[in-house]
Design brief:
17 helices, mainly alpha, 0% strand, 484 residues
Length: 484
Amino acid sequence: MKLSANVNTEAHREEKFKMMTTQPVEKLILKLAVPTIISMLVTTFYNMADTFFVGKIGVGHVDEALMQTRAQAAVGVVMSLMAVIQAFGFFFGHGSGNFVSRALGKHDIKSADRVASSGFWYSVIIGGVILLLGQIFAEPLALLLGANGDFIDYTVDYMRIILIGAPITMASLVLNNQMRFQGNATYAMLGISAGAVLNIGLDALFILVWDMEVIGAALATIIGQTVSLVLLFVGTERSDCIKIRLRNVRFDKSTVGEICRGGLPSLGRQGLNSISTACLNNMAGIYGAVAYPGVATAATSAVAAMTVVGRIMMFAASALIGFGQGFQPVCGFNYGAGLYRRVTKAFWFCVKVAVGFILVIAVPAYILSDNIVAVFRANDPIALEIGTKAMQWQIITFPVMSWVVMGNMMLQTMGRVVSATVLSISRNGLSFIPAVLILPAIFGLNGVLLAQPVADIVALILAIPVTVKVLKELSNGDEAPKLG
């Protein structure tokens, strides 16, 4: 029986290899992108749901508006910590997943087994370390990330529970990405989406019905992520994906090196995103108070506004990222098989489609920006004003993300660690952090709002020559014989 199962698995893998290396890349990318886009949208939507539902706490209370603003500011501050947790999840997930897709392209199943299992268990161990350290230093960590005395209690309460889910979140991200890089995007989508939908339902129950405030939002998040992890593990076992086995875990230099090569760009991008968010929250609080002198809660309103805009723009970006994730397994399999022309063809297809899609959604989003922000912060006029202006400026430069995102995903999947890392940290690190620290000193609060658009332009300027150089190398490379 076991022999029969192994034969079937090998047959499925061989069929998948043939499909990934012979079918038209346009058809493949669209097929793989649909579930990843859905997965990204649903995941980002439940992040927005936390922001939305905590904006409904304290209804009927005399300080209703203030309580809601404080809660949303707390969620925004903890986003920095969540970005760190996700950074390590993506590090191990992309690091192992990138290698697995290339190994399968070379029919090297033994190496794929070793790296997949190691990446999963590495994430659990590091997640446990983050959980322990975060609980010990919760309050100073909250202050470092941008909380102030006006809403630090909300921040610490939310943070402590989110930290409990750190190993779970990281492990689920690893499985999700490993499945996706193996071309099983539908399984990955179902696992992540089920937990996200549950999270949204629990948000409504815990906050609106049971009045659990930010604690309810945090509990809903970790319960949803636990369900996702279980479903993803079951999906891995029942599909033709590489299985996670403790006996395959290795701590040798080769295994660690392969994961680092594939995962460092993600760790750099997500890690700097955490630092960027903390800088943004701190600068928004400082210059929000300066822009509205005499308003005691102006700093908190400014942080809440940037939290709302960050979640809205993340939702829009998730569709682009999901589309790019449909490109990555196509890139990995074909690069591993030496079919370089298919890689370049797939890249240009993705860039063209992404730019067109963004332009279509950008115009109505710009026009309706005040209405969109009002869904989250209608009863705080300062947050609404700041949020609307910030969203409009970010929409103007949003289309440039197409080239930056696709270029980064191509380089990372190919294992071009230096180029991919430079691209991955360009937008939220090399560009954004200096912008958000320097521009406010010149333009005040407007400088805070302009930081992201300026960073987008600088990131594009850095990304074009790096990506073009690699595309030329691929075009000049030897083409392996087409199979089947």
